[in-house]
Amino acid sequence: MLEIEADLVKRVDGIRIHTPEDFEGMRKAGRVAASCLDMLVPEVKPGVTTGHLDDLIREFVLDNGAASATIGYRGYRHASCISHNHVVCHGIPGDRVLKEGDIANIDVTVVVDGWHGDTSRMYGVGEVKRRASRLMDLTYQAMMAGIEAVKPGARVGDIGAAITELAHKNRLSVVEDFCGHGLGQVFHDEPNVVHSARAGTGAELRPGMFFTIEPMLNLGKKDTYILNDGWTAVTRDKSLSAQFEHSIAVTEDGYEIFTTSPAGLHTPHTA
Ligand code: MF3
Ligand code: CO
Ligand code: CO
Predict the structure, then answer these.
(1) From the DSSP assignment, how many helices (H) and strands (E) are in the chain?
(2) In a structure prediction context, what are the per-residue pLDDT tens digits for the chain, which is 271 residues long?
């Protein structure tokens, strides 16, 4: 009996409450994922294929004592998702050649000692048009506004409310078809972090909860559809889309970001 009780994992509203040792595991995993995105900054340039970038990611992950969480996940075969221009998320790396003026989100999830680090950033390819760099900047700001809403006693809906307020003020739409998610020893867990939500709704946040915040903002309408490959999500109106993602924890007095860039390269950048 006692042994079984010691093994019980604490959940509140179906959301796992983690221990201080669990935070250590997440810091390691988050650091590897964020360093991987740092490594890519000089590599994302006109003429490179998304498949080559995925090869670099796969190597980096293995060289750093981690495993890719996406290889083998529901039949997915790549170490990253690379989503350019009107691709909202889950773009499959391959023969596509990135060209001057493109923008691309690169999303990497690694597992270190059983813990998941999930993060993505936007990359500009060479010189990028003003409206594209504005979209990237505002999407970063929207993610950070969502993160700043995180503290014990706040509600999951407060995150989406902060994101939506910033987006709508700037005449951008917020994608509703994909959400942030709890993570830890599980890749996709409770809670569902909706990026377009009303303040005061959803589960109450408690110290020890881990989840991602990963808003997708569009220049046009919010609507998306999935291509025949079963993965690639695109905007229905072909408008540009951007996304940033951090893995975070609720702490006693606010939040901790696990996937901060060790090289200070988190904000949107062009190589
Ligand atoms: N990293 C994505 C997320 O933020 C999930 C990618 S799953 C894959 O949740 F199979 F498409 F790679
Ligand atoms: Co995620
Ligand atoms: Co991700």
Answers:
(1) 5, 18
(2) 445 545 568 999 999 999 999 999 999 999 999 999 999 999 999 999 999 999 999 999 999 999 999 999 999 999 999 999 999 999 999 999 999 999 999 999 999 999 999 999 999 999 999 999 999 999 999 999 999 999 999 999 999 999 999 999 999 999 999 999 999 999 999 999 999 999 999 999 999 999 999 999 999 999 999 999 999 999 999 999 999 999 999 999 999 999 999 999 987 655 4
* Lining residues, ligand 1, CB within 6 Å: 70, 73-74, 76, 81, 90, 107, 109, 118, 212, 214, 231, 245
Give pTM, 2 decimals. 0.96
Residue 218 CA to ligand 1 center (angstroms) comes to 19
Read off the tokens for 246: 């951090």
Atom of ligand 1 nearest to the CA of 76: 10
In angstroms, what is the span from residue 69 Cα to ligand 2's centroid?
A: 11
The residue contributing the CA closest to ligand 1 atom 4 is: 118
CA distances from 95 to 63, 71, 105 (A): 24, 18, 16
